[in-house]
Amino acid sequence: MTASSATAPSGAVYDRGYRPFEGTLGGRRAARAAVYRASLRRAVGLRRSWRQKLFPWFLLAVASVPAVVWVGVAYITRGTPAEAVEIITYREYLGVSTALLVFVAFAAPDVLCPDRRHRTLPLYFARPLTGTDYAVAKVGAIATLVFAFSFLPQVVLYVGQLLVSDGAFEYFGNNLEVLWKIPVATVAFSAYFSLLACAIASLTTRRIIAAATLLILLLGSSGFAAGLSEASGASERPDGFQVELDEDGVEGDAPVGTGPNSTIAPGPILREYEDPSSAWGAVDLLDAPMHVRDLVFEGEVIEVYLAGVDGAGLLAVSVYLLVVMTSAGTLWWRYRWVEP
Amino acid sequence: MALVETRELTKTYDAGTVRALDGLTVTVDHGVVGLVGANGAGKSTLFRILLGLTEPDAGTVVVDGIDVATDPIGVRARLGFMPEHDCLPDDQSAADIVSTLGEIAGLAPRDARQRASDVLDLVGLDEARFRPVEGFSTGMRQRSKLAQAIVADPTLVLLDEPTAGLDPAGRQEMLDLVARLGRFGISVMMATHLLDDVQSTCDQVVMIDGGRLVGSGRTEDLLETTGVVRVDVGGHGARLVDELGAVATLLPDGSVELPAGDDRIDAVVDAVARAGLPLHALSSRRASLDGLFAITDRDVG
Amino acid sequence: MSVDTPVPGPTTSSSDPAFVTDPTVIVDDVSVWFGQKVALSELSCSFGAGVTGLLGPNGAGKTTLMRAVCGLLPPRQGSVSVLDVDPRRDRDIHARIAMVPEEDAVPVALSARALVRYQARLCGVRDRDAIDAALATVDLVDVADRRLGGFSKGMRQRAKIAAALVSEPSVLVLDEPLNGADPVQRLALIELFHRLGDEGRTVIVSSHVLHEVERLAERVVVVIRGRLAAAGERHAIRDAMADVPRRVRVRSDDDRALAAALIGHDAVVSVTVEAGPEPGTTGGVTVSTSSASELALALPVTAAGVGIRLREVLPLDDSLESVFTELTR
Fold it and tell me: What is the average pLDDT score of chain A?
């Protein structure tokens, strides 16, 4: 019944419900990268509701806005007498904005605590992933974001100033060292806060507790340092407020008090009194990375309390390293084995 | 090549006071294996050692030809694990969870997405896979957990009490799924308390108590002979005993028991036919593994 | 006593197996709803001394029924009476009723002894020995003073059962009591429930592991979608589903010949030759029949008639499993 030239009918079944995987599996590196990517996604709000996206992006905007504002000011005031007003420096801008602190305080726990709370950790470690890999990937993700959130505004500031200045190449040439100082300081800064936040988050299953602990620890130590410094009899200062000096020795605020050392006069005012300084300033965990930042930018500690103390630099770096090492140690200890 | 081979595997805790595993030596072939034992008998410890999460104090274990001691990461690449407890992050969808865990197992993101879709089809999670796990029933959670265990196409999947918390219909579905995995070439090691599950689904059994092996082998073989033949002839047991004579005993539930043997069986069937009695049941095999476990447990003490 | 055979349960009333003679718990036309969800719908049944199994899919209403029986929630319609008393009105009766719920929620900081003692106080049990006796019944005496948090799931279950037993309740309602117990503990608990049933207590046990319910109780009550689906002895329930053919697996020394001989019988609906372990061999014959008893009578005779030696005869769906599957289909 078939024509001689017809081919025999043929058929095959290709899929009975399961296809084995023919490709190759990546090893630890792929696993680490996957944890890193998944954590980044989560912290930034991808694949989650719009509410979760709002938080990080809003914070980033808040962190960047000052840069835009300063650049705008510089633009508007160029060529006018008000040009003398100094724009914020890179050193000063790389600081702990409230936005950043809030971000890391909530992002780190959000990325670490649920895995422990929902007992998902055994699922991770049934895969080619060691505890160290996990911790490195998670901290890396947070650190990347903190770095990005701190670095981007700096870039905005730099590019803005570049464009606004009289001569772009001139500006470039005059500010060469900034090109390495900003990244290095930002890395030191990000590493510190991410490690600390992640270490605290690794200790608990509740995100809110981790966030609160971090904030209390940082702000509390800051206040503590302030209290101890004052109490230990820092050098005299006028009633009223402290004065900050910028690079040219020009005061930011004119003293208006009636303290023994105050003067009231128009024009440039010479420094008459010192900022209070005390070694207790080293206890301030919030500012420890700031001191390191100052060391990178200026080679000396500038911020309050620790400034002017002998060996301030060494002290600052020691505190910094202490926090970093303790955090890393805590993370190692918390993820070294997991109950399946 | 055997699937899992252990030799004198030993693990103690609390400075030797708790012997979780005590010289366990067993060979298991590819297929669906039931791992049975009392709580604390060593099932979870064995899983931990297989996953390379705990190091044994002594002994060796080889999975699919790889020694766990020398290459724990390599062994993990061939394993999948489904824990007993809840382990899924509530606020993510099943598809997202399985896909991410697939990436962490080493799949490229595109492969992970495809595999996640495949295994979620296999376990029967259709539209629900895009919803957050929060609203899932126990059955759906168990299936999601199973899906993440097989997403990277493991050689052996470790299931810890997979039917816990499921109603009879759900249990049957899960066991059917496990049997299907076996047919697709994925070996399964199922730790369970329920000997019935083992009997219906597993082709091999490993029984451990106090960290020691008390029995292992193919399920068929373990069920094979009890040494007696049991006959159920409705309410007419006494009549049958009369026919058969002294060798037969009448049991309390109305069935009749005799020593085993092919010729005995023939004699019984002849007697039943002669007397015109109804032959409801006739067997020299165990009805269930229960008896085996209870006896061996008592021996071990 | 063997745990393979269930003890005779409450005597089922011959007119309606949902009810027993000498009931201790009577559920009369009870309906319960939570908002739009109807949990129980016009359910009527009774329970008596001995062990009764309560079965049903998840969400079918078993837990609601158990709570209504214990007086923990009021029926919106109908009535519940326990030992001739409405448990919602008469609070004293609560000392005679004990419930062991399924949830694993125990105060983890307490020891087993403390938990039992607490329950004893709640029920007004003064006798110190009662606490030790309850703990001994569930074999927790050695670990009675350890924190519940350190217990395995099966041990926590047993602690809850001990707490329930300390007041010597007449009615004991247990929701999945074997959950988390290993094979040895399961057998021990089954034996315990048998004993309690023998003592004349009304024991209602719900479980998803149907093989164990078979061992636990002769009488079962099946609730599906809030309605009473079936009740009575499981063999009788199976017989009542006469329209569903029974299946029997027969092994012999010549399966094909046996199949050919059997298919001629009126009572045989279908015959399947099963594949054996090696390709080309057979592994028995599955016979589907409209009458199990007729097949049982015909089988030895037919086999003898064609010179076949039978090796094994196994009814496949005499179990609760098959009854349940049919009911929930």
Answer: 77
Per-residue pLDDT reduced to its tens digit, C190-207: 889 999 999 999 999 998
Which residue among B54, B77, B89 sits closest to A25, beta carbon to beta carbon? Answer: B77
Long-range contacts, A174-183 (Cβ 8 Å, 24+)? A178/A90, A181/A90, A181/A296, A181/A297, A182/A90, A182/A94, A182/A151, A182/A154, A182/A158, A183/A151
From the list A34, A274, A58, B283, the residue with the least C-alpha distance to C318 is B283
- CA closest to B203 among chain C residues: C277
Q: Complex ipTM, two decimals?
A: 0.84
C-alpha angle C128/C132/C137, rounded to 5°?
A: 140
The confidence score (pLDDT) of residue A7 equals: 72
pTM of the model: 0.81
First-residue to last-residue Cα distance in chain B? 34
CB B98 within 8 A of CB B117: no
Residue B21 has pLDDT above 60, yes or no: yes
| Interchain proximity B91–A20, CB inside 8 Å | no
To which residue do tokens 């993990």 refer?
B76
Q: Which two tokens stand for residue B238?
A: 């006494």
Nearest CA in chain B to C305: B273
Q: What is the DSSP letter of A296?
A: H
C304 contacts B273? CB cut-off 8 A: yes
Q: Which amino acid is at A25?
A: L
A in contact with B (at least 3 C-beta pairs within 8 A): yes
Contact A310, A272 (CB under 8 A): no
Neighbours of A115 (CB within 10 A): 23
